Amino acid sequence: MSSGPGPGLPFLPGCAFRDPMKTSFHRSQTLGYKNGFAFSQLPTVGIGGERLYVNQLSQAELDELSNKRPTLTYGQAKQAPPSGFIPAHVAFDKKILKFDAYFQEDVPLSAEEHYRIRQVCIYYYLEDDSMSVIEPVVQNSGLPQGKLIRRHRVPKNDHGDHYHWKDLNRAMNITMYGRTYRIVDCDPFTQVFLESQGIELNPPEKMIFDPYTEMRRMPMRKYITPSDFDQLKQFLTYDKQVLRFYAMWDDTDSIFGENRTYIIHYYLADDTVEVREVYKQNDGRDPFPILIKRQRLPKTFVDKKKTFPSCVLEISDQEVLEWYTAKDFAVGKSTTLLGRTFFIYDCDEFTRNFYRDKFGITDFQPVEIKKKPLEEVPQVIPPYNGFGILEDSLQNCFSLLPKPPRKDVIKILENDHKVLRYQVALESPNPEDRKRRFILSYFLSDDMISIYEPPVRNSGIIGGKYLGKARVAKPGSTTENATYYEPSDFTIGSTIEVFGHRFVITDADEHVLNYMESNAESFPAATLQSLRDHFRPRQVVKETANSDIPMLGTSKQELDELIVQVQEELKLHNYLNNKNIREAFLQCDKDGSGILDKAKFLALCDSLSVPTNAILVNKLIDLCSCGEDKINYRDFLRAFPS
């Protein structure tokens, strides 16, 4: 498109040329928007942005046209209305106040920092009086950074007020949602805006940086003076040279503690220490040989802070003031390694030579280790409760799973089905119980006793088993030293106490006498003689009955001597009435033969309270017997003179 002709040149063909500086060829707009309304306007520029001198009015002409009108026709002109209202979101669009601030945050669980400084930017949006807090992202900080407070109107107090830009200034604290921010500075636009509104700004402050972050940014430069002794030289000189010490750990003061032996190895190549346990065969411990693995052991630590953890994975030179060396180990002294105290009582020959050549130590006398004797706790056995056999109850005191007491199998096999039987009478103040007769059986295979009461018709007492098979302990026997009744304790006339009941032995089987005579070496002479004296009158009577020969003078003499002894014993029983006894026997003997049935005789004696269970009286009854079922009561009445 050709440009207009130059000044003074006619716009004719051949008289026009192109302006090389012109780049815009669009037409100007005649429509526009004002306060949200469309309106038309005359173009002020032509094609390509060239100014049009037509349709142009000066500012004075425009003011005159807007303020004055013909007076004669329309009267005095009215004042033009003020400019239209501009809303805040239009006037302050994209106008933001920016403040630089920071806040302090406590760090309770860290050994390297107690607090943390976090820098933030506070933005105030003028168009709607909203605020937001954004923390710039710091690389490798490990903190969730970015937007801390989203954009909204931040409440100022509990009365419903919100923060305004008039409340913000430099060098002041502002609290938002319980967190206090310190505003230190603002950008130039904020400074100009606040000063234009008549606010006097405080002088800016310096931004405070996080000390831990700064420490991480700055590389720690440490200068260590090289030692005189080179580690490489130490390794080449003392490689494969190890000091060996024999130590003991005394843990007897604690519960289940004991004395345990260890071997301490000190490696001269790198000053490391290793502790190994010493195991014995069948000591009941798992074979973990290493108690402390090979490592440098700290001797003195640097003063730690309260927040420093007591257990660390790796110990560096910064935490340790002094490490263990070969000078810290000596025979006869104690050393504490990682909280456990070891007493060194001996070392090997290489260690002795090393200390003798290196430090000039010559005292290597080994210390004799004496183990503390264990205190024997006396085992208190509780008293017998009366249930079960004494040996069975005693096993409950020795084991949680009681085992049955061991039996003498040989004795059981040798004495199987061998039983000694005795006749016993119950010793009781009740007259009815004194008439009761029992059969006591002693089983030689297991030393048990059983008592059986033969039933008697019209006696009013149900007979049967009185005591099952059980071992009967003697009176006064204890749980620790229990003594039981044996066949040697069963003599004619002796008293046996069975679980609180007293029985008197009145008779026995002849098998008892035969068994004791065949095993005379196993029984006392008094027991055997008691049975012989008891069975001798019966044997004499039997021999007399079998031979049909009257009793010899010696038997009559023996009977007279026994009657005299019975009379002396019956004098102790003052309650006996001899006259009534004689009359009762004479009344029972209706035919006057002088012989009564033995059962009737014994029943009559019990009714008259005659002590038939006495040894002498029982022997007199045996001498007066005329067979198994008859008795000559006239000889018996001689013991009861009128």
Automatic annotation (TrEMBL):
Which GO molecular function entries does the Swiss-Prot or TrEMBL record give? alpha-tubulin binding; calcium ion binding
A single cellular component GO annotation? axonemal microtubule
Single GO BP term: cerebral cortex cell migration
UniProt KW Repeat keyword: yes
Keywords linked to the UniProt accession: Cell projection, Cilium, Cytoplasm, Cytoskeleton, Flagellum, Repeat
Localization, UniProt: Cytoplasm, Cytoskeleton, Flagellum axoneme
Where does the EF-hand domain start and stop, copy by copy? 576-611
Q: Does the keyword Phosphoprotein apply?
A: no
Indicate the principal place this protein occupies in or around the cell: cytoplasm
Q: Which residues form the DM10 domain?
A: 93-198, 239-359, 416-520
Q: Name one Pfam family in it.
A: DM10_dom
* Name of the protein in its database record: EF-hand domain containing 1
Q: Which organism is it from?
A: Aquila chrysaetos chrysaetos
